Structures are given as structure tokens and as C-alpha cells.
């Protein structure tokens, strides 16, 4: 479990779904910044109009469409699905090698060099966010990074920068206050709830909506931080499995170390020229 208790200054998203136009500019910006390849999809192959039909190793965020009737007219509501960047992330609590971590800036990031492919994170996440690279021979886990490389340099995430209407980005405490201000100012416009303020122990993605969250496709989650449950479950895991996890971690570390040393040697050799890689006289075989 996280040793931190104050997340008020963490950067957070406030997503006002009453202002979302469904333009999907956030999807495009995410693809561009993370250099994610396009997916071949079929219209209506998922739950509705949204495309791609689901998040995957190539899609870190998507806009879900929900059609409904209001005053006899067909209407659309939209929901931006992404990593919730939990204050106390379940994915980090179950990872046996510490491949996930909650950063001081707010985003929950993943270090692929540590990953052993156990996929415990996929099971533990209450929002179903981490995805596996099923298309790779040596797969890794992929998910939204919260554009951590941008955030730590003082920039906004790509999706928040591209969104023309619905996403506000700033310190979590300020985003919650702004959400509550909007609820008080327009009680007829919103469902009286700030989603993410307490869900799963609190998240860095805050939502406002006019429709019930379950109708939009939000998954029911506890208000309690998930690591408090995952640790209780891990207590019951036989020691042999934890031992296997530790062994795999060690093997993974040695493999990554060997690969890193090999790359460093190749780079050093390339910097000095081809002559440095040629065998010396000491290594030449003596002719009979």
C-alpha cells in the first residue's frame, strides 16, 4: 500500500461529460503522442458507435457513445475511458517486481524493464485498464501513462491539450473544488456526484455527468482503496508461488542486465570505429 496520504497537489483530470462533443480529438492526440499504431476495426463490432470497440495495447483512451431519448428526441452522451491513475493503485500493490508506481506528480507509470508478464495487474485493476500485447512474441503490459514525460516537464497531457471543451487539468484539490462549484451552480445540469473523489480510495481522474454512471458504462467499485483488499488476498497465496515470482524477478533482472551490457558494448564499439571490434593478434590462432 502507498505510504502517501496527501494527494491534493497531484495533477488530475476533471472531465465534464456534459461538455464533451464526441469529437475524439483526445483519442487522436493520444495516438500521436504515444506513437500508437492504428487498429483495423469494424463499425458496430463493440457496444455501439464507439470505435475502436475497446481499449487495447494500441488504444490507451477512447470515447464511449451512449444513445438515449430525452423529451422524445434521440440524444448522445459520451464517456472518456482511460486509466484512472488511482491514489493507491491496485496494479502497483499486486505487482511482484514493482513495475507499476504512483509518481509524485500524479500519473501511475509502468516500467517495462521490470515486468515479468505475470498479468496480476490486469486482474487487480477494478477499471480493467492494463492490456497485454497479445500480438508480440515477447509481450508487455500497456496502458495510459498520464503523459508523465510531459507532465514532469510542466506540460499538460496530450488529450487534455487537444480537448476543446470537456477536460480541465490541474491539482487534484482544485479539480474537485471546481467540480463541486459546477454542481452547486447548475444542479439541474448534473447528477449530484463527483466520480473519482472517493471511488477506489480516490483517483486522479474526476468525472461530472448528467446521466447515471452505471448507464454510461462505469464499473461499480468500492470506495475503499483496493490495496487493502489485495494484500488480504496475497496473504493467502502459498509461499511457493511468491517464491516463483521472486525467482522470475531475479531471472528477469539478469536478462535485462545482460542485454543492457551488450548494448553498451555495441555503442562503445560503434563510437570508436570498426577497428575496435576486430580481433587482436593475441586472439589470432597460430598457423601450423
Global morphology: globular
Q: Give Rg in angstroms.
A: 23 Å
What is the terminal separation in angstroms?
68 Å
Cross-sheet strand order for the largest sheet? 8-1-9
SSE order: EHEEHEEHEEHHEHEHHH
Helix content: 25-40%
> What is the count of DSSP helices, taking H or I runs of 4+ residues?
9
Query: Structural class per helix/strand content?
Result: alpha+beta
Mean pLDDT: 84
Q: Please indicate the percent range of residues in DSSP E strands (runs of 2 or more).
A: 5-15%
Q: Report the major sheet.
A: 3 strands, mixed
Uncertain spans: 279-288
Number of strands: 9
How would you characterize this protein structure?
By secondary structure, this protein is of the alpha+beta class. Helix content is 31%, strand content 15%. The chain contains nine helices and nine strands. The strands form four sheets. A three-stranded mixed beta sheet has the order 8-1-9. A two-stranded antiparallel ribbon has the order 2-3. It has a two-stranded antiparallel sheet with strand order 4-5. β6 and β7 form a beta hairpin. It starts with 10 loop residues before the first strand and ends in a 16-residue tail after the last helix. 32% of the residues are buried. The C terminus is likely disordered.
